[in-house]
Structure formats: structure tokens, C-alpha cells
Amino acid sequence: MSEPVDPATAAPDDARARPDPDAGAPDDPREPQAPPAAEPAPTPPLARSRPRPGASDRAHVLVAAAAIVGLVYRAEVTAWFRGAAPAAAPAAPAHDHDHAGGGASTPAPAPVIAPHTFPPAARDAVEVALRAYEDVRLQLAADLTDGLAGAADAVATAIETLHQADAGAPAEIHARAGDAVAAAQSLAGASDLAVARRHFADLSAALLALVSADPRLAEGRRIYECTMTDGFNRWIQPDGDDLANPYKGAAMQTCGAPLTLDEVFAAGADAPLDDPDAVDHWTCPMHPWVHQQGPGTCPVCGMELTPVTAEEVRSGVIRVEGERRQEIGVRVQPIARAPMTIAIRAVGLVAYDERSQADVSLKFGGWIERLYVNETGQRVRAGQTLFTIYSPEVYAAQQEWLLALDARDAARDDVNRRRADAMVAAARRRLELWDLGAATLDKIAAKHAPLQYVPIAAPASGYVVDKDVVAGAAVDAGHRLFRIAALDRVWVEAQIYEQDLAEVKVGQPARVTLGHLPGKIFEGKVTFVAPSLDAGTRTASVRIELPNRDLALRPNMYASVELTTDVGERLQVPESAIIYSGPRRIVFVDLGGDRLAPRQVTLGLKAGSAYEVLSGLEAGDQVVVSGNFLLASESRLKSATGLW
Predict the structure, then answer these.
(1) For position 607, what pLDDT does the model report?
(2) What is the pTM of this model?
(3) Residue 232 burial (10 A CB sphere; 0-12, 13-18, 19+)
(4) Residue 270 in 3-state DSSP?
(5) pLDDT of 555
(6) Measuring CA to CA, how many Å separate 85 from each of 35, 76, 167, 353?
């Protein structure tokens, strides 16, 4: 800009070159001209009646008029001298930020798109998307998520029609439209408010890029930014509506400053998007909300600010030199496909083999005379006498049998003998059905006299696990007196959670260990998997049969059960490499050149200290297996991705 000329000493040519305050705008285009005012400042009434001033007076009037114009149209004059186009509408007053400390936020640059005039159908599609986008913004500004799905789907549907309505548009137009559709679809599926706001930021960046290509779309709308939001922090809302911040919601409803399109996309024009080493902003490691455009010190703690590159903001990639890796204990190792054996561990309970249990009950009533087995837990053998009993029915049946024997012996012809044989067989069969053994019947026949107290023998070998009788007790038919169970073979009932049932099969090998026998392993196989689950514990019972000749396994003992399944070769990652970030699983991958990138992975089965990788990694990738939590903290501070 040239030096100002004193009107009192200027040459006549200079005087002719100076604009006359009473004259119109100069015609010479070489002279810088202030932007035309909407309405000229009114002239005071007294000034109209004064006579024409002299040269000196005219100079003072000129200076005063220039000062008034500069004050009234300060923004336009500044923009004119800087070469920027004035805003289409007067800027609304900036709202105060309801926070203390912290520097101004520098958002991730918005993609810059070359000017493009949308055809009517395409422009209508973007207009519909912006109206649906406004519904999304109002929902987030009110801290609501219930109506997001419908509004976000409407945005995606409208933008999808843009591809057909303007098929000949530049590739960058279609790329930004694709970004908008992807962000809207992700937003439609978000139920968490923080996740929804991250997808809203992606959607806002894509829509702002489309609006920048055709400024007609910005008519009637205003752009705001929130300096309290990390990453992309701009949004669009109708001009004249009350400010409602979708990133902060009700807590900071009026936190936002108005911007023009030139201001929004100036940052993106300065640094090319394909340069990952371009510094996006400088921040403080202790106060990550401090964002500055250049190096310096933190206004909060005074620490030196550290640079954050565009790649770090966009993808979360961080740089850690070899020396620093050693200091914080970062170790990497390659992942590979390897045989995978799944081990399912469960708690089991030793139980009787139900097939070896037997009950002792009577088919007649009577009175117990003597108990030979009178203790619970006593070992018995099959055929051993348990007790003797008197029963009038059994006594009478013995007499009938003896009379039939006598009648057979007295029969003198074949007809009577055959009839007597049938009576003898029927009387004997009746006693056998009352559980009188062959030895007892032979004794009765040898003595040829009924037994007053009939012996009852054990039906099986084993241990008395239940006893409900004493000497002299009166018992009825059908009453259970003893329960006997064998222990030479037992069951182990293990409870398997429903998520592991798919890996459990009949015939699968199993290993059982007991707490009181450290180091001893019992080998068995799965013989039964329950067809239903316990409603309370959400587990299914799995049965394992084990031999128990030395009685090491006793019923109701707790046991630890391990079932193994070979699932073949799988891509595996160590458990120590995985970072849990809400519903996501993150692994840091070494890209080389001191660069480490967070990558979201999908995990499958777990085998020991390794997980199966379903997606996100490939064989040979170098992953961080130690020190990754420190890396996650740094990546979380710098990145604008939705991983964290």
C-alpha cells in the first residue's frame, strides 16, 4: 500500500487523483475501491446548508469520512484488502464458549472440491439431504438418539440419488457423496450418543464439501464450528435459527462460532491431503484440547507443544522411534496361521452312575425281625441277606406250597400228578415273585415247614446310600427300605456355558482333575450332552464317565474338567496385543518407518493366550504385543477416527 499523501502539499495531479467525497466512485479500475455500501451514510441536515468548503476543509472531511466508512464496513474493507470475497450474509455474533482454559480447536481439514454446478435434479437431492441432516442435528443437539435412524436413512437415500442425477459429475463429487452415504448409514445404526456424534462429524464434512462445490446450496444456511470439539467440529444449520450445538448438546447448547465457506475450506487448501507428514496442529500431551496452528507452549501448563500430523488425525497413526520404544517396553511380533486347539474349562461334580443303582422294597406288608445291614454307606454283595421279616401272607403262601407238594406226592395216576405239578409250580412262583430266593425255597422244602421270618437278599452289589428301616418296624408293600449304588464307575457332570456348547461333542476326550489329588489326571470321554439349558445358570450338563476302582472319585466331589477340540489351522494373534475399546477390539500394527497404526479386528475362538482373527489382519503383519496401552493413549489424543 502506498504512503498517504498530505492534501495540503500534494501536487495538482495528486489532488485530481484523490476521490472527492461529494463525487461518485472513481472510474479508474486500477485504483483500489472499497466494496459498495448497502446504503450510504446519511448526511446530517446542518451539513447540507453549509457552503462548499475549501481545500483544507475538504481534506479534513475526507479523512473523517474514510474513518466512518472504515468503522462501519470494517469486515468488508479488510476482506477487500486481503483479496477475499465478502460473505453473502452479515456474520452473526459469535457465542461465548462455556469453558475455561484451552486453546482454539483446529479441526481436521475438510476436503476441497473444485466448483461444480449441480443440475436441478442433483441440487434437489442435496437439498433433501440437507433438510434430513437438519433433523439429525436437532436430535443430537437435544442429546437424543431415538429418531436418528430415520433421519440418517433419509440423508443416505437422498445422496444416493445424486449419483444418478449427476452421473457426469467429477470423481471427487461422487467420492464425497459416497462418504456422506457411508457416514449416514453408520449414523443410522448408532445407539450410543458419543458414537453418533462421531459419525455426524463425518457426515458434516462430506456435506460441507458438496456445498462448497455449488455455493447456491449455502443460501439460507450458516456454518458453525465448536472449538471445544476434537476432530472435525463444523456443522450446517438454517440461517436465522437459534444456535444449537450438535456436538455438545444441552450441556453447551450455544457453543459455536459462525464461519464462511472460505474460512471452512482455507485449512484444507493450505496442505495437500495426500501428504501424511503435513502438520495438522500442535497440541499439549497433558491437555489435548489445546490446539494451535504453530509451535509454542501450552497456555495451561507451559509444556512444549508437540506436532500432530494429518495422518495421525485421520487414521490414528503415531510415530515412536526405536529408542523410545525400548524405554516404554514396546515389542512387536509377526502373526501367522497355526494349528489351533480349543480348551474349554468347566467345573464338574462327581455323581453316582445312575445305571448301577438299585432300590430294595417289598411286595407285601410285614414286620422287620432282624437287620443284618443297619448302616448307611455299608458295602453289600448281591445275594447278601439284608434283613428278615415276618408276613402272614408269605407264611400262608409257604403252607400252600407245602400242601401242593404233599398232594403231588400222593397222586397215583398221571392226571392227578399233572394237576398237582401245576399247583406246586404256581405256589412256588408266587413265593419267587415276593423275592424269596432259590436257597430260601430249598430250605423250606427240605425242612417241609414254613419259615416264620423270611430272609430278603440284596439285589446288587455296592454301597448303601439310603436306609429307611429299623428292626421291629412295620413296613407296607412298595415302601423303599434301602438304596444301593455301585462306585466302581462314576459320572462327572460338568456345566458348560451356552457359548461353548458348539464345540462340545459326544465322544470328545476329557481330562478331569481333583483339588485333593494334585498332578493326577483322569482320562475319559463325553458320553452325553444335555438337550436343554438351565434357565438360571445358562449352562448345559455334559456327562463324562470314569472308572473308579480305587474309589478316588467320590460322589459330590468338585472336579475341574477340560475339554479339548482341534479346529485346524487358524490365523492367531496374542491376547496381549488386543486393546478393548468399548465394543471394538484394536491392535497396533507396525507399518515401518517408526509408524504404528491402530487397526480394528474381529476375533473368533480363543485358544490359550491367543485369539483367532476373523478380519482386520493378515499373516505376516507385525503387531505390538507389549506396551500397547501407552500407544493407545497417544493415538486416542491425536486421532479423529471413530476407533476410540
Answers:
(1) 87
(2) 0.46
(3) buried
(4) helix
(5) 94
(6) 10, 8, 31, 91
